Amino acid sequence: MDKDRKLRVGKDAVVYGDVSGDIGDGSVVIGPTDSRGNVILNRTMAVGRGAYAGPGSIAIGAGAGAGSDVVHAFHEIGKIIQSSGDTGLLNDFKDLCNELNKHEKDKSRIRMLWDTVKASGVLIEAIDSVSKVSLFIASIL
What we know:
Elements: E1 7-9, E2 14-16, E3 21-23, E4 28-30, E5 45-47, E6 52-53, E7 58-60, E8 65-66, H1 69-84, H2 87-101, H3 107-119, H4 127-140
Helix pairs in contact: 1-2, 1-4, 2-3, 3-4
């Protein structure tokens, strides 16, 4: 990076590569990573607030997820709840997902919402997904 260029990075921001300027709070900025101006991302990475990536995957942005069993488990649970027609449970699940994506997580709210979702009878067919999400949530709490 050129010494004359300035870089100011906001709270919870991620900068990768050759970047200058003011980077706002919670932003993800990826600049060139080689001398020819190319961006080369060739390793597993999760970049951004609350991002997570499984082996061989790249997730970029707040709450982004890729290549992870947990991502698949959340999607499976969401589809099952949606197909059940239980709008209250669906709203609780959406609230849970929103709370998990927040920077300042309300852990008691996460616990309460997840307890409500996993106790519902509609998820009996998704025991494996419930277990994966339970482990993920336990790691946060």
